[in-house]
Amino acid sequence: MAKNPVRVLVTGAAGQIGYAIVPMIARGVMLGPDQPVILHMLDIEPAAEALNGVKMELIDAAFPLLKGVVATTDAQEACKDVNIAVMVGGFPRKEGMERKDVMSKNVSIYKAQASALEKHAASDVKVLVVANPANTNALILKEYAPKIPEKNITCLTRLDHNRALGQISEKLNVHVGDVKNVIIWGNHSSTQYPDVNHATVTTSSGEKPVRELVANDQWLNTEFITTVQQRGAAIIKARKLSSALSAASSACDHIRDWVLGTPKGTWVSMGVYSDGSYGIQQGLIYSFPVTCDKGQWSIVQGLKIDDFSRGKLDATAKELIEEKTLAYSCLS
Ligand SMILES: NC(=O)C1=CN([C@@H]2O[C@H](COP(=O)(O)OP(=O)(O)OC[C@H]3O[C@@H](n4cnc5c(N)ncnc54)[C@H](O)[C@@H]3O)[C@@H](O)[C@H]2O)C=CC1
Ligand SMILES: O=C([O-])CC(=O)C(=O)O
């Protein structure tokens, strides 16, 4: 029997990531090739015409799984009965703007959209915040939508995770699909800590630790980390636009694994509400290694954290605490 359609909201749908992600969702990349979807697309009034253009293209693409499209500038209408919400809409930093100005605009947007989601979305809606500052926007959304379970509000660090897999694959000249269990700890910012201490590569003679195969701790502890931390900036420099196809693809990976589960023996990175694991204070949205089963994520426990890693985990937590303080000062 055919499945009932799942309603998927994409905010900022007329933007770059929006344009890349909606055809992926309509093709089953996010929820599977047998899962019909109804797309809800939200953008703001100045982008209404462009948003309608995206809707026209979705109709023209004749996707068999796409059972309906809602394209609107009304947040309440956009959020109505949605099961999945991918929050991409936001205010980008413009020349001359201070970090506080960007933070102020975005936390106000996320406060308002939290209320629309809480009132109108399905009670078990799963939320993924992509727009920057992603962790702090997600935290604000959580605080202002108290009826949405905190476990249902996450932010995207899967792009950083995939970037780390990509760098190891390039370094070792192995297929990216054979590399697993890297970790992104902390903030989706340049303080994030890409950690390979538990990562492995599947080889013809079994699974081998990445550290052993790379055999270059100097590279792993310096250049590898900064390359992943700075990859977003490198893409902006090269494209004069920020990452869109990789961000869209990683957002699909995030939701797919969350809903359909992670493969046995594999974890992924997700920005989730800290429960105090690994000494990270509660009350932050922090990226941890997680496994997913039956629509629920769980933080991977018991990984050994050496002194080098401890310092990095704490430094990115410190930045998130500062962002949280700044966000609240913008809202007060
Ligand atoms: N977490 C991650 O890994 C990544 C995050 N990003 C972030 O994703 C966000 C979107 O990036 P792009 O698509 O490249 O930007 P973009 O500027 O092309 O698109 C953003 C869209 O959001 C819309 N928007 C603005 N305010 C809105 C509101 N209140 N409600 C609904 N829509 C609204 C804009 O009109 C625009 O269409 C940015 O904040 C970017 O920094 C980008 C790449 C990776
Ligand atoms: O900095 C940006 O706007 C883009 C971004 O988050 C990334 O590519 O990781």
From TrEMBL:
By its UniProt entry, which Pfam families does this protein fall under? Answer: Ldh_1_C, Ldh_1_N
Q: Which GO terms describe its molecular function?
A: L-malate dehydrogenase (NAD+) activity
Active site: which residues? H188 (proton acceptor)
**Positions of the Lactate/malate dehydrogenase N-terminal domain:** 6-153
Q: Which example biological process does GO assign this protein?
A: malate metabolic process
Q: Where is the Lactate/malate dehydrogenase C-terminal domain?
A: 157-325
Tell me which EC number(s) this protein carries. 1.1.1.37
Gene3D superfamilies cross-referenced by the UniProt entry: Lactate dehydrogenase/glycoside hydrolase, family 4, C-terminal, NAD(P)-binding Rossmann-like Domain
Q: Which InterPro entries does the entry link to?
A: L-lactate/malate_DH, Lactate/malate_DH_C, Lactate/malate_DH_N, Lactate_DH/Glyco_Ohase_4_C, Malate_DH_AS, Malate_DH_NAD-dep_euk, Malate_DH_type2, NAD(P)-bd_dom_sf
Tree of life domain: Eukaryota
Residues annotated for NAD(+) binding in this entry? G12, A13, A14, G15, Q16, I17, G18, D43, N106, V130, A131, N132
Task: Tell me the keywords, alphabetical order.
Answer: NAD, Oxidoreductase, Tricarboxylic acid cycle
Ligand binding (substrate): R93, R99, N132, R163
What is the catalytic activity of this protein? Answer: (S)-malate + NAD(+) = oxaloacetate + NADH + H(+)
The record's similarity note reads: Belongs to the LDH/MDH superfamily. MDH type 2 family.
- PANTHER family found in the cross-reference section: MALATE DEHYDROGENASE
> What protein am I looking at?
Malate dehydrogenase
Source organism of this protein record: Malus baccata
